[in-house]
Write a structure and sequence with these properties.
alpha/beta, Glucose Oxidase, domain 1, 14 strands, elongated
C-alpha cells in the first residue's frame, strides 16, 4: 500500500474535470482509465452503450399579470416542449404536490418544492396541470458562487407522459410565491437525440476457482458543473488500486473490474451492463461497489444489499482492524442496485463527508476537501475485506437475496405496481 493514497490523489488530479453522461469529456475520462489499466499490464475494453441526450433551444419563464417580470430558469430535460410562443396559464403554488395541494389546478402552471419525484409528477399530470416549475438551492445562495440545477425526467417519470417544466433558484421561487401572479408564461423548446456513453471493463483470472467471479464497480462520470473528484473519481481510483493489488497478488477467484458511465443519469451504465451480460450474472458471487471517498472530515460506511451475515463480517473486520465503519443492510443508491436486482449480493463502500465538509453534485466538489491520507485509510480497509473474501476457502456470502432486500430493491426502482 506504499504511496497508495498519493497515486489515487494523482489520478483524481488527472480526471478532475466535468464529465457528464455521453459527453466527449466522459469518453476522455474512460480512455484515461483504460490507459491506467493497461499501464498495470492488463487489458481494458471500452464498451459503448446508447444514452438519451437533450438540448434546450429556447427557455423562458415570465410573470404576466398583475405586473411583468422575467425569471432566470433552465429547462427540465425530457419534459417535452411547448409551442414556440410558450404556454400562458394561471399560476398555482402546490408545495409538495400532495392531493390537497393539487385540487383545482387543471389547466394551470404549478410550482413544486424541490425536485419533482415520479409520484409527484404522476399526480401533477393526473390533476391536469399544463406545465411545472421546480426550484434548486437555498434562499441564501450567492448567485455568483452557485448554479441552477440541471434536472431531467427519468424513466419512472416517462411512463406518465410529457409535461413541460423548468427549474429556477430558491430565492426566485420564494419571490414568485410572494408576487402570486394571476398568469404566467412558460416557454420550453428542446430536442432529444442519442449519444454513446462507455463502460471500461478489465478482468483478472482466478488461480484456483476461476469459475467464481467477484465484480468491482465504480462510476466515473460526474454531474453538470462538478469535477467529480469526491463523487466519484475517488471510487474509480480505489478500485484501480484493488486491481493493482491483485495483479501483484494473483487472486484465487476471477475478478472483474468495471468503471461505469452515466451513473448520475440513473445508473445507466450498470443497468446496461447487467442487461447486456445477463448470462454472466450467475457466476458473480459478490458485487463490490465504491462510490464516494476521500473527505478529510467524514465517516466510512458500508451498505449491504444481501444476507445480513455479510454485515456481521464487515462489523467484525472493523473491530479487528480498529477501523471505524458504520454498516447498514439496505439498498445503496448506486451501481450495486442493478446487480442486486439480478440476485447478486452487493456491498457498497463509501466515505461520506461530514455535514458541510464535502459538497457534491455541484461546482464545489473539489480536491481541496479531500486528502491522500483519507483515501489510503479507506482503501486499506477495503483491501482487507477483499483479501478475506477473494482468498476464502469457500465463499462465505450466501448467493441469495433476502425478502427484505427484495422489497427494498422494488421500492428503490419504483415498482409500485407490485404492491
Amino acid at each position: 500500500m506504499d504511496n497508495c493514497g498519493k497515486r489515487e490523489f494523482a489520478l483524481l488530479e488527472k480526471i478532475g474535470f466535468v464529465r457528464v453522461s455521453g459527453s466527449e469529456e466522459e469518453k476522455k475520462a474512460a480512455e484515461m482509465l483504460a490507459e491506467e489499466v493497461r499501464a498495470l499490464g492488463a487489458e481494458a475494453e471500452l464498451e459503448p452503450f446508447p444514452v438519451t441526450h437533450y438540448e434546450v433551444k429556447k427557455v423562458k419563464f415570465e410573470m404576466l399579470e398583475p405586473e411583468y417580470r422575467e425569471i432566470e430558469v433552465l429547462g427540465y430535460g425530457y419534459s417535452g416542449s411547448t409551442p414556440e410562443e410558450g404556454i400562458t396559464a394561471e399560476f398555482a403554488y402546490v408545495q409538495q404536490g400532495n392531493k390537497a395541494d393539487l385540487y383545482g389546478v387543471k389547466g394551470k402552471i404549478v410550482l413544486v418544492d424541490g425536485r419533482v419525484a415520479p409520484d409527484v409528477y404522476e399526480r401533477i399530470l393526473k390533476a391536469g396541470a399544463v406545465g411545472f416549475v421546480s426550484w434548486s438551492g437555498t434562499v441564501i445562495d450567492d448567485n455568483a458562487r452557485t448554479d441552477i440545477d440541471k434536472r431531467e425526467l427519468r424513466e419512472p417519470h416517462w411512463r406518465h407522459g410529457k409535461c413541460p417544466g423548468v427549474v429556477m433558484r430558491a430565492w426566485d421561487a420564494m419571490e414568485l410565491v410572494r408576487a402570486n401572479p394571476k398568469t404566467v408564461r412558460l416557454t420550453l423548446v428542446q430536442e432529444e437525440s442519442e449519444r454513446n456513453s462507455h463502460n471500461v471493463i478489465a478482468t483478472l483470472p482466478g488461480t484456483d476457482l476461476p469459475e467464481e467471479e467477484i465484480c468491482f464497480v465504480a462510476h466515473y462520470d460526474s454531474t453538470p458543473y462538478s469535477n467529480g473528484v469526491y463523487d466519484n473519481g475517488a471510487g474509480a481510483a480505489i478500485i484501480l488500486e484493488m486491481m493493482r493489488h491483485f495483479i501483484e497478488n494473483p487472486p484465487r477467484r476471477s475478478l472483474r473490474f468495471l468503471w461505469v458511465g452515466s451513473e448520475e443519469r440513473g445508473l445507466l451504465g450498470s443497468k446496461y451492463y447487467v442487461k447486456a451480460h445477463e448470462d454472466e450474472m450467475e457466476k458473480i458471487q459478490l458485487l463490490i461497489n465504491v462510490d464516494m471517498a476521500g473527505p478529510v472530515l467524514g465517516v466510512d460506511r458500508a451498505f449491504i444489499t444481501g444476507d445480513v451475515s455479510l454485515q456481521h463480517m464487515v462489523d467484525y473486520l472493523g473491530a479487528e482492524a480498529g477501523f471505524p465503519i458504520r454498516t447498514t443492510q439496505d439498498v445503496y443508491s448506486s451501481d450495486s442496485t442493478p446487480f442486486a436486482d439480478k440476485g447478486v449480493p452487493a456491498i457498497s463502500f463509501a466515505r461520506f463527508g461530514a455535514q458541510g465538509a464535502a459538497p457534491g453534485h455541484d461546482r464545489n466538489d473539489l480536491l481541496e476537501h479531500l486528502s491522500a491520507e483519507s483515501l489510503e485509510k479507506t482503501t486499506g480497509f477495503i483491501r482487507l475485506f477483499c483479501d478475506r473474501i477473494v482468498g476464502s476457502t469457500w465463499f462465505p456470502v450466501p448467493r441469495t437475496m433476502p425478502d427484505n432486500m427484495l422489497e427494498a430493491i422494488d421500492n428503490y426502482l419504483h415498482r409500485w405496481d407490485k404492491k
